[in-house]
Specification:
The complex is a heterodimer.
Chain A: H1 2-28, H2 30-39, H3 41-49, H4 54-78, H5 83-91, H6 93-143, H7 151-154
Helix pairs in contact in A: 1-2, 2-4, 2-5, 3-4, 4-6
Chain B: E1 12-14, E2 17-20, E3 24-35, E4 38-45, E5 53-56, H1 68-72, E6 82-86, E7 93-97, E8 102-103, H2 112-133, E9 145-147, E10 155-156, H3 175-178, H4 190-205, H5 220-226, H6 228-233, H7 242-249, H8 260-263, E11 284-286, E12 289-291, H9 294-303, H10 305-313, H11 316-323, H12 328-339, H13 352-362, E13 368-370, E14 373-375, H14 380-388, H15 398-408, H16 411-417, H17 423-436, H18 448-452, H19 471-480, H20 495-507, H21 524-538, H22 544-550, H23 555-558, H24 564-580, H25 583-590, H26 593-621, H27 629-656
Antiparallel strand pairs in B: 1-2, 2-3, 3-4, 4-5, 5-7, 6-7, 8-9, 9-10, 11-12, 13-14
Classes of the chains: A mainly alpha, B alpha+beta.
């Protein structure tokens, strides 16, 4: 009981600290915050829409989104992180499309791997079934008592 | 005879000619009229072509007596000599000289002197030689005595062409033999031959009246009542010299008959005194019959069993025998036996064994009486042979009677009581033979004739006509005969063939006991086992014909092997062995216990593997192909790692560019 209460307290503390950090970032670095916020919209959407595994998926998609964010971030850094530069960058559709596609790419890589694994497993089962059927047929032919003796064998 | 050269080369030159002893060529196509009731064939003597010889082929059901080989060697003046008595060709052939004249049965005129000089004395001389050799003739009858005419002595035909006394008409047999059916008469004693000689003399002096239409047993009652001499010769006008001679020869008491030596001088009008048997002054009434002698009482006791039992338990028989016949010892024995008598519901004596003992005590010269059948123990072999062939005319099955007799061990009792000297030995031989072939049930009784008579051919209905007396001959016949083509055959051999082979091997001491070679029933596989042993024991060489006949019927035995590949390979090996005629190898291929055990073990392992595979297949059919959660987590970590690599790559590219 004490542990869960402590964990709840730590969670709310973390949320408070995250909220304060976001507030501070919006206050002191509005350009960077806007760029990051827009680029991470797919992750926020996944978190909100997929309640069962949203957090895990978002964590998995994070590096892909980060890979797409490096270049716009660098360009914003070069423009001193101003709000105007951030808006200008975001006004370029390629920036947000590439970022969002990168996040989607992360999701796609995962789903593709899942499908691949499924197909591989199905193939292995089918192959094993065929081998068993072959072995059973060979056993039946060799040991089936009802099989009539071929006349040429003794004639 | 296509494959006769495979083994057991006979003396056969070709299929229709047989060569015996290297000189006698029997022409099987040239069958002659039966000679003394025995099929006869023309023979050519290659050494002496002018000699007239006959080849006699005794039918399978009427083989000569076991001691026939000794009899065949007998040589005496006026005896038709047997030149060869041989089964070297696989079946028994008797070669004897052709008779010098017509048989006496064809009639003629005879005086007392001619009968004495030309019939009685010469035949008595032959019988004397037989007696010295310890054998009997038992075939002295008009159709077996030949007259060449003139003043020469008649010639007596052979004694080995049929079982002893089998073809003797009742009137030429003493009462103790005539009451038995022909197969049950046995070898008897030399005085039985003397009786036959006396009966022949009486018949000749009586004008050679045809006797072929005599009904069997028609004169028995009269002979028992009046005596055989009175019935057979009483009506003849005999001289004072011949009458006592014939009276002695035709005496119903064997002990009262003269020996052959006594008859050698019959022509010298030697005086003969007939010893009268004990006759009661006051007869005993059995049924409606007045009985005066012990012999008559014994015979009628078997016909009037109820009345006899009644008199016996009341002690009437005992007193009558003691006071009227002067037989106190027999009366004493009867009294002892009467104490143990148990009467059946119908008032007769319940026990056949007790009745048999009673009869033997009343007259120890009478044959064995068991369940209404009279027979001599030394005739048991022939009696069973006739019975098993369904030719017995007895009211009771002789097989059953003999089986009961052996099972109860009462032969020994008869041997102790009988006064006929040869019978105790015969009883002992039958008991020994029964033990040798393990007669335990009624069905086993058909083994006994083969042990008792080595000249008994295989009695299988399929080869009976071939008269096969040797195992090798039977194997050769099986190897070449085509009779197996009939549909529905369940085995190659039949019961008679298996018994014949087992007994022959036992007699030849090739096996120690009958069961070493006997099989419980006939089937293709059991027959193969038996024939393989026989092939090995007799070293016959290849039996390709038998192998080919057995092969198609051994498939069910191959199915004992569960492995198809083993079955196929063994089937192929079997076919090769059959082609080579190696029955031993065929048997080894089919009956290999170690291989069968290995096959069974492999079968069990295969069944286990099959069950395991089926279970696995069942499990796979229901297996979920979805990715399990741990793997999914791994894949998330992997995708994350790929993303991290991409991010680092992107960062590096941004720095570099």
């Amino acid at each position: 009981m004490t542990t869960s209460v402590a964990k709840g307290q730590r969670g709310s503390m973390s949320k408070w600290m995250s909220g304060l950090a976001c507030g501070a970032a919006l206050a002191w670095l509005p350009g960077y915050s806007m760029l990051i916020g827009v680029m991470l919209i797919p992750l926020i959407a996944v978190c909100l829409l997929d309640t069962s595994r949203g957090e895990v998926m978002a964590r998995m998609m994070m590096p892909y989104a980060f890979a797409a964010l490096v270049h716009p971030f660098h360009m914003l850094w070069d423009a001193d992180g101003s709000m105007e530069a951030a808006v200008t960058l975001l006004m370029n559709p390629m920036t947000s499309v590439v970022g969002w596609c990168a996040a989607g790419g992360g999701w796609f890589v995962f789903e593709l791997a899942i499908v691949g694994v499924k197909l591989t497993r199905q193939f292995q089962v089918r192959q094993r079934k065929a081998a068993i059927a072959k072995e059973l047929t060979a056993l039946a032919e060799e040991w089936d008592e009802q099989t009539a003796e071929s006349p040429e064998a003794v004639a | 005879m296509a494959e006769a050269d495979e083994f057991g080369q006979s003396e056969t030159g070709d299929s229709r000619n047989l060569t015996i002893d290297g000189r006698y060529v029997i022409d099987l196509d040239q069958k002659l009229a039966d000679f003394v009731n025995c099929p006869a064939y023309h023979v050519k003597d290659t050494v002496s072509p002018t000699t007239d010889v006959l080849a006699l082929a005794p039918p399978a059901l009427l083989p000569p007596h076991a001691s026939a080989a000794v009899i065949a060697k007998m040589r005496a003046p006026n005896l038709l000599s047997v030149r060869s008595f041989s089964d070297a060709t696989g079946s028994l052939w008797i070669l004897c000289d052709a008779p010098p004249g017509n048989a006496l049965s064809e009639g003629g005129t005879w005086t007392e002197t001619s009968v004495l000089e030309r019939v009685i004395v010469p035949i008595a001389s032959i019988l004397h030689a037989y007696n010295e050799a310890g054998v009997t003739h038992r075939a002295i009858r008009p159709d077996n005595v030949f007259d060449s005419g003139g003043r020469s002595a008649v010639c007596l035909g052979p004694a080995v062409t049929a079982p002893p006394a089998y073809f003797q008409p009742d009137r030429f047999e003493p009462l103790t033999s005539a009451i038995c059916e022909p197969a049950g008469r046995g070898s008897g004693t030399i005085v039985d031959d003397v009786f036959s000689l006396g009966a022949l003399a009486a018949w000749l002096l009586g004008g050679c009246v045809p006797y072929r239409d005599d009904a069997p047993g028609a004169q028995l009652e009269e002979r028992f009542q009046k005596g055989s001499f009175a019935v057979l010769a009483g009506h003849l006008p005999l001289s004072q010299d011949v009458a006592p001679l014939l009276a002695a020869m035709l005496s119903d008491d064997p002990a009262a008959r003269p020996s052959p030596r006594d008859l050698l001088h019959a022509a010298d009008h030697k005086g003969y005194v007939v010893r009268r048997a004990a006759v009661a002054t006051a007869p005993i009434i059995l049924g409606s019959v007045r009985i005066k002698t012990a012999r008559t009482l014994a015979w009628y006791a078997a016909r009037y069993r109820k009345e006899f039992a009644s008199l016996l338990v009341r002690g009437v028989i005992e007193r009558w025998m003691s006071y009227e016949l002067g037989m106190p010892q027999a009366a004493g024995k009867l009294a002892l036996l009467a104490r143990d008598v148990v009467l059946a519901e119908d008032g007769t004596i319940a026990s056949s064994a007790t009745f048999m003992e009673l009869i033997s005590v009343i007259d120890p010269t009478m044959p064995l009486c068991w369940s209404d059948i009279w027979f001599w123990p030394d005739a048991i072999g022939q009696l069973l042979t006739t019975s098993l062939a369904g030719k017995s005319k007895a009211s009771v099955d002789p097989s059953l009677a003999v089986f009961e007799l052996i099972r109860t061990g009462r032969l020994d009792k008869f041997a102790l009581v009988t006064s006929v000297p040869t019978q105790p030995t015969a009883c002992a031989m039958v008991q020994t033979a029964a033990r040798q072939v393990s007669i335990e049930t009624l069905a086993d009784i058909d083994r006994l004739p083969y042990v008792l008579n080595p000249y008994l051919p295989c009695l299988s209905p399929r080869c009976q006509n071939e008269r096969l007396t040797a195992t090798w001959a039977l194997l050769q016949w099986l190897n070449t005969a085509q009779d197996m083509e009939v549909s529905g055959a369940t085995a190659l051999l039949d019961r008679q063939m298996t018994i014949f082979m087992a007994v022959a091997a036992l007699r030849s001491r090739l096996v120690e006991t009958f069961s070493d070679l006997a099989i419980s029933k006939n089937s293709w596989s059991l027959d193969l086992a038996l024939l393989a042993k026989v092939q090995h024991l007799y070293m016959t060489g290849p039996l390709k014909g038998i192998g080919r006949k057995l092969l198609p019927h051994l498939t069910p035995d191959l199915k004992r092997w569960r492995s198809r590949s083993t079955r196929t390979s063994r089937g192929e090996q079997l076919a090769v062995a059959a082609g080579e005629g190696d029955l031993g190898l065929m048997q080894k291929i089919l009956a290999d216990p170690q291989a069968l055990r290995r096959d069974q073990a492999a079968y069990n392992a295969a069944r286990k593997l099959e069950n395991k595979l089926k279970a696995e297949r069942e499990r796979l059919a229901h297996q979920d192909t979805d990715v399990p959660q741990p793997m999914r987590n791994e894949m998330i970590r992997l995708a994350t790692a790929v993303g991290v690599v991409c991010a680092i790559g992107s960062l590096c590219a941004e720095i570099v560019l």
